[in-house]
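Message: I would love a firmer grasp of how sequence relates to backbone shape in proteins. Thank you; the sequence and its tokens follow:
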Amino acid sequence: MKRNPTVIFPEAKKAVIEALDIPHPGEGEVLIKSACTMISTGTEMTAFMGEYLPGSVWEKHFKFPYHPGYNNIGTVIETGKGVPQELIGKKFASWGNHAAYSVQKAEHLYPVTREIPDEHAVFFTLAQIVMNGIRRSKVQWGESVVVFGMGLLGQFTALFAHQCGARPVIAADISDYRLNVLPDERGIVKINTSEVGALDEIIRAHNGGELADVVFEVTGNGRLIPSEFAALRSQGRFVVLSSPREKTLFDFHDLCNNPSYTIIGAHNFSHPPVATPENPWTMSRHAKMFFDLVADETMDVGRMISRKVNYTQAPGIYEDLLRDRSQDMGIIIDWSQA
């Protein structure tokens, strides 16, 4: 029988590849042969390290042995009961894990109908997350935005806010590498926060003397969150687009009530489950929009790829990231030879 090489975290800070049986799709499911997957250096590394608070959502979802991965591009090779066989041979984006083969619910597939590289299409989940966050933030044309954290989510946040007409969009990070992945666009200001003084003064200097209308937290560092409010004007909007793994000591008087800030959570699962006239922007529609942006060359995600590796190298990648992830963005795992 053919085997299914699969990335597994058997315990904290350990990644291996195990040859599992190829699964069979059940009712309403399909079997996907993976072309490529992408490592999420944020969420997956949280799971890999296993360092989260007892009783937290992290602990509930990340139990060892854990099968990481949720950015997958592949082809349907088998359908289960109730799924049209016409799907066989077609390319889809899915939340399949890092494995040569994975079973997915047919209702959670996103067709890749445009001619775009697989290693670009695989960014779809991150694009979905940020598109939903941008809509929940209600960023408007002409508003000023500060984005803290220039990892992949931060990259998309800065680019989508800029496309929505936000001016200026101030990208803040401590890594010149991450900042330089952003394109040099008029209206995007890159600030290395480790090299400047008072950030509020820098923001005012680029924003007509005013603080930001909207601040996006995308560092994932809960300890930094209180300080990020210094970038926000009175009655501004603070959007938590990251998933911090530690608790934050927060003064709700000084950082919410007194300045009358609006604090907005923006998890991917806050997408509407179905399209409605009031909110048609489901995950499926956002995925299609992303593929169109890439195909029309409005969005260049190629610059966000830092490595493309054969699946056999995957365990070593997590060890690399544990030592230092400041020089990595999108890491693509190639399953074509599996």
Q: What stands out?
A: Residues 124-137 form the longest helix (14 residues). The chain has a mean pLDDT of 95. The two ends are 14 Å apart (CA to CA).
